[in-house]
Amino acid sequence: MDTTASRAAEERARLYADMAPANLTPLWESLHALVPKEPRSPCLPAFWRYDEVRPFLMRSGEVITAEEAVRRVLVLENPGLRGQSAITQTLYAGLQLILPGEVAPSHRHTQTALRFVVEGAGAFTAVNGERTTMHPGDFIITPSWTWHDHGNESRNPVIWLDGLDIPTVRMLDSGFAENYAAAQQPVVRSEGSNFARFGANMAPMAHDAEADPHGATSPLFAYPYERSRDALARLRRDAPADPWDGFKLRYLNPATGGWPTPTIAAFLQMLPAGFDGKAWRQTDGAVFSVVEGHGRATLERDVDGDVQRTVFEFGPRDHFVVPSWHRCRLSASEDAVLFSFSDRPIHAALGLLREERLG
Ligand code: GTQ
Questions:
Q1: Phi and psi dihedrals of 248, rounded to 5?
Q2: In terms of Cα–Cα distance, which of 30, 35, 169 is closest to 89?
Q3: What is the end-to-end Cα distance of the chain in Å, rounded?
Q4: Predicted confidence (pLDDT) per residue in 132-144, tens digit
Q5: How many CA atoms are closer than 13 Å to the CA of 189, on its beta-carbon side?
Q6: Is the CB of 277 under 6 A from ligand 1?
Q7: What domains lie within the chain, and their CATH numbers?
Q8: Does position 208 have pLDDT exceeding 60, yes or no?
Q9: CA of 113 to the centre of ligand 1 (A)
Q10: Hey, which of 153, 183, 225, 248 would disulfide with 105, CB 3.0 to 4.6 Å?
Q11: Which residue(s) pair with 141 in the sheet?
Q12: How far from 160 is each of 95, 122, 244, 294, CA to CA, in Å?
């Protein structure tokens, strides 16, 4: 370095050091990272094989009760976001275990939650005074600020995937929570009441009073797998598979046609045996839970001219995450059904949603 350049570098370094106590930093040192040409997420592709996770979950059942833990959950923590309890920059995911006879006590919080039942039937979740019995593949919503508790009156352990917008609410500093006075909230409606009111493509004559007046969260809180699975099977009879997605449907808010929750979207798709999908990418990072079948997800992204490739060979009850703007191709060696959720409603609401379907 010539002396002029080294003098400039020294003067800059002195400026940075002198102004740091005044809480001032030079934008020009970080501009390209702050305003990147395209997303370069610290979130990494990651895979959780169920055979590996399940024994740890069962061990957690030996060391702590659901009551003591409040929620006995193993967090699916992204290896690129260690210490943040996050699976993507905006979303949290975990696998929750509830053993026969246990109760996870009632509380409420501003974070929105979804459950996707992975193993076992006969546990229940109670939301807003109504219980729903859980079966594998059921998609269940816990809207922001609604009382909820879980219990297991069956003879088997029940395990489900929790998806919450915890990192989003943390970023917005809008988290509130409180415990209910008793372990369980009173049940005030019979099971199935919610589905009768909102699950038949019909709605009560006046439902504004009981539903979220902003329509931000679906008034329907349980979407049975049987129905969703049947819809995919019927789709398949009448139309060819989409080259990128196979047969894919989104869960909706029946009162608005919009997303089921204000922050989290959810999807169910079937990849027919032999499906070899084309690549797509999207700004919303997505978490996948495999329900049926075996297949492969191939993820790629370009880093400084190199292609980083990650391949996941998936089977039932495995979980994986496709971070923002990674190219992803899905294929299936036998009929496969995948549930997924993402922060798509946030991207859409802010005008930031981008997606590409590649050749
Ligand atoms: O079931 O209420 O996985 O509050 C994390 C936080 C589940 C729940 C989680 C929660 C819950």
A1: -130, 135
A2: 169
A3: 47
A4: 999 999 999 999 9
A5: 15
A6: no
A7: 44-357 (2.60.120.10)
A8: no
A9: 7
A10: 183
A11: 114
A12: 6, 12, 27, 20
Ligand 1 close to Cβ of residue 165 (< 6 A): no
In short, whether 73's Cβ falls inside 6 Å of ligand 1 is yes
Alpha helices in the chain (DSSP H): 3-19, 31-34, 50-63, 66-69, 166-172, 193-198, 225-238, 344-349
Measured in angstroms, how far is the CA atom of residue 308 from the centroid of ligand 1?
Answer: 34
Cα radius of gyration rounded to whole Å, the chain: 23
304, pLDDT greater than 60: yes
CB of residue 95 inside a 6 A radius of ligand 1: no
pTM of the model: 0.96
Q: Phi first, then psi: give them for residue 220, nearest 5 degrees.
A: -85, 125
Nearest atom within ligand 1 for CA of residue 104: 1
Q: If you count them, how many residues does the chain have?
A: 359
- Ligand 1, atom 10, residue with closest C-alpha: 71
Q: Which residue has the CA at smallest separation from atom 9 of ligand 1?
A: 162
| Cβ atoms < 10 Å from Cβ of 15 | 12
Chain centroid, CA 299 distance in Å: 18
169 lines ligand 1 (CB under 6 A): no
Task: Tell me how far apart the alpha carbons of residues 17 and 9 are, in angstroms, rounded to a whole number.
Answer: 12
**153-157 long-range contacts, Cβ below 8 Å, gap at least 24?**
153/100, 153/101, 153/122, 153/123, 153/124, 154/100, 154/120, 154/121, 154/122, 154/123, 155/100, 155/122, 156/100, 156/120, 156/121, 156/122, 157/58, 157/61, 157/97, 157/98, 157/99, 157/100, 157/119, 157/120
